[in-house]
Specification:
The chain is mostly helical and about 290 residues long. It has 13 helices and no strands.
Amino acid sequence: MAATTPTTSFFARQSTQARVARVGAYAAVTLLAMLYAAPFLWMVATSLKDPSELDAVPPIWIPKVLQWQNYPNALLRPTRYFPLFFENTAIYVGLSVLGQLISCSLVAYGFARIPFKGSKFLFTLVLSTMMLPPQVLLIPQYLLFKQLGWLDSLLPLVVPQWFGSAFYIFLLRQFFMTIPRELDEAALVDGAHRLDIFWRILLPLCRPILITVFALSFVTHWNDFFGPLIYLNSQKNMVVATALRLFAMSQQALPIHELMAASVTSVIPVIVVFLFCQRAFVRGITMTGMKEG
């Protein structure tokens, strides 16, 4: 039988320590994931409970009989208007995300690929707007939209998104700069216009970062509560985030299990978008900033 050398023993100990460290890391991550998921799981469990199980002590995590009728009761009754709220939210989110994708990608393309005097100063000026708290602009914007007659409509929420966002411009600009400039030069030699290069060459190569911007923008606007709370007054124009608050605070509030059912439904689109965009999201984030501007 071959004797164990000190070198072999050293590497065996290192391998064992590495496995123990990996198991410990996975255990810690699993524990944190369970802690973060617990509120959501409780919300799902509550949405499927019978009213008699809501105040049980000790709390009931798994309902005895799943009450699936809580969902249509919460969402489809004529006096609760949830289909209208989801329709308003879809319009708001769709137009806002589209506006940010178009405007931010065009501005980022100009900063990254078209040399002009003062570009670095202007880019720094754009980034500096990220340091300005949105509350500082709230009153001037509100007065402006009031003069335009846009209050109690989706216009104050949608139109500003078509003028770009500094954070998304930064992400897109950094990703554009990772693409070799030789592609632009070859296209210009062949007679392509700048917009042709942007549309036909760069955008197809920028799919990961575009999906990243789409996912971040979608989640931000779907969960937006402050903007709709300020600018939307009538029930016919409300979005899901403010509608849930309205029903939670009204005299005819939804029962807690039906309110949880409506809340779970409002979270589902965000989960679906994240699951479909996860791989491209990670790639877009990791590739951004690989090359200095």
